């Protein structure tokens, strides 16, 4: 099929993407209020949840990148407190915090998970952690009725952690036969954990809160607002269209693969289904076919997307929606990026927890960051400036001062030995 539409240069496509992600608006000079936080969350679309805490939990960082200094306790309350505005669920393959308005759009996926229709090849729209998929196959065969027992325990005692959800206290040992290598091993997914995670995928329980970042489960009707739960469940085809609209709005301009592929991006769909949904949105005028410079696939521009000039300054979480699609990041920013936390030390090029630094509309540096909470210090072990990019020193020093303030850290210590690192050390004093 021939690629159609007006050509969009890579520079314009990059500005469209940045505006769509909320980087076209200047951050407030003082502490961001709840209204500004809501705007930042809406621009990101989702906040991916990750357990790594070497700097701070990842879901906090996209809000800081877009809104500046804000109270993390406020985001905690919005996510897990009374009057919550967000809920946890799986967005694509990733656990994420989502606006409550998304909940009705995902009910059909919960129904499919309840029926255990989650084969990635047959039905890539419905995803669950591998330990749930494999674990439920084993539990269904070995322990029929066990999931119902766990649900009854949560009903009686909730909210509970996974370790508190076992109705009999039996724990699998490493020597036990196990078709899923992660169950009871690296992630310590015992049978009760598999059961409550399955119930979570199916929407019967949800995440009521976190204890030391460990999930706490309770019945969904005891956690989420009644008006959210009573909202009409959309038919699957209508929900798919709305979810792709959300993805298109947040991406600004994207190929079908970027809109709908599994593993990266916003929402996975089978290729044939994705084509049908995108065709419907083109016919409705929501998506405009375009040709993006350097991309052979057909691309689509959100009908309200803008390409205003960008004057941003932000440190980006490795899981920020702007850059979580690494191929898209490489094309739009000429920035080849891979997270290094799973890379052996000897093979790391830029450090451990490396945040790209956005300046203007370019990614100009890779900044390895660590919060040393014992010494109240924001540490910069490694800093690498990108070739042919603007000098980042002063802007990065300002951003690090803002981040240290936000994280309640008193000092900044730069031990990076690169030329950019030595300049930054002098700048932060």
Task: Describe the structure in your own words.
The protein has 429 residues and is an alpha+beta fold. It contains 15 helices and 14 strands. The chain has helices at residues 10-20, 34-44, 61-67, 72-80, 103-114, 130-142, 146-157, 191-201, 226-229, 236-251, 256-260, 271-284, 326-333, 393-406, 419-428, and strands at residues 6-8, 47-48, 86-91, 94-99, 205-211, 214-219, 253-255, 287-292, 299-302, 312-315, 354-360, 362-372, 377-385, 411-414. Strands 10-11-12-13-14 form a five-stranded mixed β-sheet. Helix 14 links the parallel strand 13 (377-385) and strand 14. Helix 5 packs across helix 10 (236-251) and helix 7 crosses helix 8.
- Mean of pLDDT: 91
Number of separate strands:
14
Shape: globular
Roughly what percent helix?
25-40%
Would you identify the regions where 5 or more consecutive residues have pLDDT less than 50?
A: 181-187
Give the topology string: H per helix, E per strand: EHHEHHEEHHHHEEHHEHHEEEHEEEHEH
**Sheet/helix structural class:** alpha+beta
Q: What summary fits the major beta sheet? A: 5 strands, mixed
Termini separation (Å)? 58 Å
Alpha carbon gyration radius: 22 Å
Strand content: 15-25%
Number of helical runs? Answer: 15
Major beta sheet, strand line-up: 10-11-12-13-14
């Amino acid at each position: 099929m021939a690629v159609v539409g007006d050509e969009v240069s890579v520079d314009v496509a990059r500005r469209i993407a940045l505006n769509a992600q909320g980087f076209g608006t200047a951050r407030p000079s003082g502490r961001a209020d709840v209204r500004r936080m809501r705007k930042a969350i809406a621009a990101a679309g989702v906040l991916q949840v990750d357990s790594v805490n070497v700097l701070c939990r990842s879901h906090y960082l996209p809000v800081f990148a877009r809104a500046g200094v804000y109270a993390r306790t406020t985001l905690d309350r919005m996510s897990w407190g009374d009057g919550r505005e967000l809920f946890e669920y799986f967005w694509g393959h990733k656990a994420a915090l989502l606006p409550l308005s998304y909940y009705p759009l995902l009910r059909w996926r919960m129904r499919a998970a309840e029926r255990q229709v989650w084969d990635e090849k047959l039905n890539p729209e419905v995803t669950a952690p591998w330990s749930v998929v494999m674990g439920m196959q084993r539990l269904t065969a070995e322990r029929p009725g066990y999931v119902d027992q766990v649900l009854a325990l949560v009903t009686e005692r909730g909210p509970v952690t996974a370790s508190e959800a076992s109705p009999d206290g039996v724990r699998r040992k490493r020597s036990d036969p196990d078709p899923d290598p992660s169950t009871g091993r690296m992630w310590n997914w015992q049978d009760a954990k598999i059961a409550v995670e399955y119930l979570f995928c199916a929407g019967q329980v949800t995440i009521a809160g976190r204890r030391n970042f460990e999930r706490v489960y309770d019945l969904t009707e005891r956690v989420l607002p009644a008006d959210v739960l009573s909202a009409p469940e959309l038919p699957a085809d209508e929900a798919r269209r709305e979810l792709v609209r959300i993805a298109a709005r947040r991406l600004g301009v994207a190929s079908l693969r970027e809109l709908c592929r599994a593993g990266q991006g916003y929402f996975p769909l089978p290729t044939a289904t994705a084509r049908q949904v995108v065709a419907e949105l083109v016919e409705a005028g929501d998506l405009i076919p375009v040709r993006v410079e350097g991309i052979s696939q057909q691309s689509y521009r959100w009908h309200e997307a803008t390409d205003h000039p960008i004057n941003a300054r932000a440190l980006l979480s490795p899981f920020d929606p702007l850059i979580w699609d690494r191929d898209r990041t490489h094309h739009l920013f000429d920035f080849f990026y891979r997270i290094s936390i799973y890379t052996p030390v000897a093979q790391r090029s830029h450090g451990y927890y490396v945040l790209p630094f956005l300046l203007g509309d370019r990614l100009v540096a890779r900044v390895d960051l660590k919060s040393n909470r014992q010494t109240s210090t924001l540490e910069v072990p490694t800093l690498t400036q990108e070739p042919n990019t603007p000098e980042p020193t002063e802007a990065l020093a300002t951003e690090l001062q803002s981040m240290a303030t936000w994280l309640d850290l008193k000092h900044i210590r730069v031990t990076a030995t690169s030329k950019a690192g030595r300049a930054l050390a002098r700048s932060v004093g």
